[in-house]
């Protein structure tokens, strides 16, 4: 009888532990378009940032101006990312790494080495490059904040949700180590 009580209490503990941890997967969408504003290296770029599923496990990210000139284009899978094009003035190692890391944190793809911890309010990943990413969420539903940190807080991403979409309606990305910010506001198809 004592062993039965012990086993039942262990089983109850495991159920509560599982029920209190949340695991987020990358957002489900086909194509999402944002009005984007990027300030980097004393340059201001604005245009459209398009996230599009090209295959089941591949997401394409393209940033272009309103006239169709591409600033950068890259693809993300669960394990890695690829650059298809980066315009010459942005083709600097630090800028490319920062852009890939920022887009990878938003998409939850391509930049993670392993999951470090998961609980009821956050999920932490180790990056392939140095540092960690913490996703903070409420009630296992929406992400409230994304932080990239190491010895110091390097990048903060704050998503804002108003619709029921898996992708945020707007995002604010701020790099604290150098002057680099991204602001995104989702564009909606009003013809439907």
Major β-sheet, in short? 12 strands, antiparallel
- Main-sheet strand order equals 5-4-3-2-1-12-11-10-9-8-7-6
Nearest-integer average pLDDT = 81
Backbone CA Rg: 19 Å
**Series of secondary-structure elements, N-terminal to C-terminal:** HEEEEEHEEEEEEE
Distance between the termini: 64 Å
Decide which structural class fits the backbone: alpha+beta
The shape is globular
Describe this structure in words.
This protein has 192 residues and is of the alpha+beta class. The protein is built from two helices and twelve strands; from the N terminus they run H-E-E-E-E-E-H-E-E-E-E-E-E-E. A twelve-stranded antiparallel sheet has the order 5-4-3-2-1-12-11-10-9-8-7-6, with helices on one face. A hairpin with a 5-residue loop joins strand 3 and strand 4 (70-76). The radius of gyration is 19 Å and the shape is globular. The relative contact order is 0.15.
Strand and helix map with partners:
Blueprint: H1 2-20, E1 31-40, E2 43-55, E3 58-64, E4 70-76, E5 81-86, H2 93-107, E6 112-118, E7 122-127, E8 132-138, E9 142-149, E10 153-160, E11 170-175, E12 180-187
Antiparallel strand pairs: 1-2, 1-12, 2-3, 3-4, 4-5, 6-7, 7-8, 8-9, 9-10, 10-11, 11-12
Short description:
The chain is α+β, with helices and mostly antiparallel strands and 192 residues long. The protein has helices at residues 2-20, 93-107; strands spanning 31-40, 43-55, 58-64, 70-76, 81-86, 112-118, 122-127, 132-138, 142-149, 153-160, 170-175, 180-187.
